Amino acid sequence: MTSRLLPHAVLVAALLVFALPIWIAVVGATQESSAIARGEMSLLPNLSGFGVFGDVLMNGATGTGPVWRELLVSAGMALAIALGKIAVSIPSAYAVVFFRFPFRMTAFWLIFLTLMLPVEVRLIPTFQVMSSLNLINSFTGLTVPLIASATATLLFRQTFATLPDELVEAARMDGAGPLRFLFDVVIPMSAANIAALFVILFVYGWNQYLWPLLVATDPHLDTVVIGIVKMIGLDRETEWNKVMATAVLALVPPVAVVLLMQRWFVKGLTEGDK
Amino acid sequence: MAGLTLQDLRKSFGGTEILKGVDLDLPDGEMLVIVGASGCGKSTLLRLVAGLETPTAGRILIDGRDVTGVDPSARDIAMVFQNYALYPHMSVFDNMAYGLKIRGLSRADIRAKVDEASALLGLDALLARKPRQLSGGQRQRVAMGRAIVRDPKLFLFDEPLSNLDAKLRVQMRGEIRRLQRRLGVTSLYVTHDQVEAMTLGDRLLVMHDGVPVQFATPMDVFERPADTYVAGFIGSPAMNLLPGILERDGSAVTVGGVTIPLAGRRFTGAGGHPVTVGIRPEHVVVDPAGAEWPVELVEPLGSETLVHAARPGGATLTVKLAGGGTDVGGMVPVLFPPEHLHVFDRNTGRRMEPANAA
Amino acid sequence: MERRTLFPGRALPALLILPQLVLTAVFFLWPAAQAIWLSTRREDAFGTSTAFVGLENFADLFADPLYVAAAGRTALFCTAVTALAMGAALLLAVFADAEIRGRAFYRTMLIWPYAVAPAMAAVLWVLMFQPQIGLVGAWLNRVGIRWDYRLDGTEAMALVIGAAAWKQVSYNFIFFLAGLQAVPKTIIEAARIDGARGFHRFRTIVLPLLMPTVYFLLVVDVVYAAFDTFATVYALTQGGPGQSTQTLVLKVYLDGIVNADVGSSSAQSVVLMAGVILLSSLQFRFLGRKSAT
Ligand SMILES: Nc1ncnc2c1ncn2[C@@H]1O[C@H](COP(=O)(O)OP(=O)(O)OP(=O)(O)O)[C@@H](O)[C@H]1O
Ligand SMILES: [Mg+2]
């Protein structure tokens, strides 16, 4: 019997380790900030306290703007990065896979190199480039520089390389040129991969921290992740119930995207990244 | 008028010559089957004709028009692939219609053509399905339909049946043949299945190492193989090839220690010239008067029996006997009827023709 | 694998790849080159001009006890985070791969944390471990175990390691589970017939087949711990108390952006760059796949 119970025990314990903080956040959000600060938090939600979600959405907390705007910035950033990366990397992967042109591999390696250059290793010069291009404190600066990265290109390159040659040949005999083939055959056939990548990139965009910290000091461009760290950073006057409410709001969109598209996302992640 | 003409067609891949000069004149409306061992360049030849590869040298004419440098889509051809290459995300209808849409045909025209082709192939009920919802045979038919709707001057088939099971293969073989006859479209058909080759083709092109070794009707190839390669390749079980010596003035051969007079045939070759003597297993006669061969293995196939014999020197012989439970002892005495002997030059492998050929 | 069939033309592919190349050049290659360039220069005492100083910035860096300490701390941090995240994930994946009831539910509940931002992991861990308000943190103090990571360096280090590993378990779990599911059932059955069971079967049959995944995750996790945890650590402790949780990325940021010491920060960037390149080439060596040809 123990061998039957052990897996359940371990898995339930793990599940709690991950879910408990979320529960605390939901419950804590509904309680009095002062009670939380005294360490007197109940483990059950105060049913009359759910108004705090509306409150932070509309008014934010001390030191931050309204959370709806932060959520909007986060969503805009995540969508722009996810869609932008897909829009940039599909054509480049397509060019590398389906054509031969001078310096093809050089171009590919240059793109590939970006994998080894996370923003942390080029912090100051990137900041300087951003300011000389006047991109500091702009939505463009927040998103466009993150649109170029090799992950998506590599994934699509791999997907495209597995399309059977005969399919290309059939399309050529049908009279489809390269662009037609791209839009009529390659993109529809890669729909599942595109969906998977969208999840990965959306989460990536939503979760950015260092980049917005670096290029967007204007509070109007605060993402919800930046906003919430600002809230707890104050420490003295922290309104803990608002922090918790904001944490829940910040987690809902990316978690929802992952859960809704779980099957594609897991497949895309494990097949693509390796 | 020639449906397809190839002139000294050559193809190299990075220094290795894969096709070493193919010349061909295929009459309009005929079906040419290209056979040969794996890797001999059959697909390459087909892909050159399709325009999917560029020849290193030579010319390709379809219906009298030089298409050597022309884009595949402008050659007025259609191709059926081994793995069908159907667009997996499109319905059967859209698969067939795609090429027509690109050509800018009107909706009504497209519908009419697809309907006609699907009626011909019995696909009417399947038009809305996706390829993954079809059986292998049905996919094969869709691939054919996609080729037919285009009304091409030339059909190209690259081993279209090799992904089907044996029974379906026989059925589809018949269908392809009927369809091709009915449409009267010049066709190239690549296979390495010799039954397909024999039954489908008006003409056969046997390839060996990038060289066409024989271009003739199937019966011609079977009855008068151009060299030992073709002799061994066409016919099942394969023709027996035994070392022999031309005797006297070329009117007899010695094979397996027995000298056989060649009933009226006389080869222009000095006595003592080394030859390879070929005889098909079904032509070997078991006769108590014959030379004895030690039996190695007997394979009863039901309606016939294969007897494999070998001599200590390494010479092997296969004999095909009618009937099932033929009892053969440890030795099988055989005679080689002279009228069924094929004689090849042992040095060149080429078929030797009698000087006094009738 | 190269394709057999290609499209002709040069202008179109150039056009297709151009946007990505431009973005790459402007925001990645140029700044990276700049980092290398800046790492060889130093401002004069008045901050008015810079001069070429060769490798002096690097020499200073490695002579700086604070930097060396940060490097050691980072090594400890990366090792601990990687070991914890991988160990826990492997254990969970093995259990979640077994034929048990509620498998799909368990999987889903272990996959969603993938969506948690490194910075959010910090926030959630504050809610758990903050000495006054944190569920666990306040409880510890109530039962008489003194706990305050804002004052105690060791506690702070344990906390950031925990939070960073916590966030990465889910990613590893997804890969381990996929790896386990890719082990052919026939191999397991053959091992059962051979009499291998339980942990022995796992160690001798399953684990060797899982090694590519292990190597892959090893590199990914080390890179994650070295770079992506910036947000986790910065939001939790900002490197403190003192320098006790200051990892190399935090130092690049603090020295470069907060203290505006461009030369030193750039030299640190270049050292990190070398680190990533080293790790990536290790990955190629071990995996031999995902190759770019
Ligand atoms: N794109 C290519 N690049 C290099 N070599 C090639 C290419 N295409 C074919 N070859 C080579 O040319 C030779 C002939 O290939 P081909 O595909 O024409 O053979 P085949 O007769 O169709 O064989 P099979 O019966 O196996 O299909 C092979 O040795 C093959 O390796
Ligand atoms: Mg072939």
TrEMBL record, chain A:
One of its GO terms (biological process) is transmembrane transport. It is found in: Cell inner membrane; Cell membrane. InterPro entries: MetI-like, MetI-like_sf. Residues 71-261 form the ABC transmembrane type-1 domain. PANTHER family: ABC TRANSPORTER PERMEASE PROTEIN MG189-RELATED-RELATED, SN-GLYCEROL-3-PHOSPHATE TRANSPORT SYSTEM PERMEASE PROTEIN UGPE. Part of the ABC transporter complex UgpBAEC involved in sn-glycerol-3-phosphate (G3P) import. Probably responsible for the translocation of the substrate across the membrane. This is sn-glycerol-3-phosphate transport system permease protein UgpE. It comes from Lichenibacterium minor. The lineage of its organism: Bacteria, Pseudomonadati, Pseudomonadota, Alphaproteobacteria, Hyphomicrobiales. The gene is ugpE.
Automatic annotation (TrEMBL), chain B:
It is a peripheral membrane protein. Its main location: membrane. One of its GO terms (biological process) is glycerol-3-phosphate transmembrane transport. Residues 4-234 form the ABC transporter domain. SMART domains: AAA. Keywords: ATP-binding, Cell inner membrane, Cell membrane, Membrane, Nucleotide-binding, Sugar transport, Translocase, Transport. It is found in: Cell inner membrane. InterPro entries: AAA+_ATPase, ABC_transporter-like_ATP-bd, ABC_transporter-like_CS, ABC_transpr_MalK-like, ABC_transpr_MalK/UgpC-like, Mo/tungstate-bd_C_term_dom, NA-bd_OB-fold, OB_MalK-like. SUPFAM superfamilies: MOP-like, P-loop containing nucleoside triphosphate hydrolases. GO terms for cellular component: ATP-binding cassette (ABC) transporter complex, substrate-binding subunit-containing. GO terms for molecular function: ABC-type transporter activity; ATP binding; ATP hydrolysis activity. Belongs to the ABC transporter superfamily. PANTHER family: MALTODEXTRIN IMPORT ATP-BINDING PROTEIN MSMX, SN-GLYCEROL-3-PHOSPHATE IMPORT ATP-BINDING PROTEIN UGPC. This is sn-glycerol-3-phosphate ABC transporter ATP-binding protein UgpC. The gene is ugpC.
TrEMBL record, chain C:
Signal peptide: none annotated. The keyword Membrane applies. Gene3D superfamilies: MetI-like (1.10.3720.10). InterPro entries: MetI-like, MetI-like_sf, UgpAE/MalFG_permease. Residues 71-283 form the ABC transmembrane type-1 domain. Its main location: membrane. One of its GO terms (cellular component) is plasma membrane. This is sn-glycerol-3-phosphate transport system permease protein UgpA. Part of the ABC transporter complex UgpBAEC involved in sn-glycerol-3-phosphate (G3P) import. Probably responsible for the translocation of the substrate across the membrane. Belongs to the binding-protein-dependent transport system permease family. Keywords: Cell inner membrane, Cell membrane, Membrane, Transmembrane, Transmembrane helix, Transport. GO terms for biological process: transmembrane transport. SUPFAM superfamilies: MetI-like. It is found in: Cell inner membrane; Cell membrane. It holds the Pfam family BPD_transp_1. PANTHER family: BLL4140 PROTEIN, SN-GLYCEROL-3-PHOSPHATE TRANSPORT SYSTEM PERMEASE PROTEIN UGPA. The chain crosses the membrane at residues 74-98, 110-129, 156-183, 204-227, 270-288.
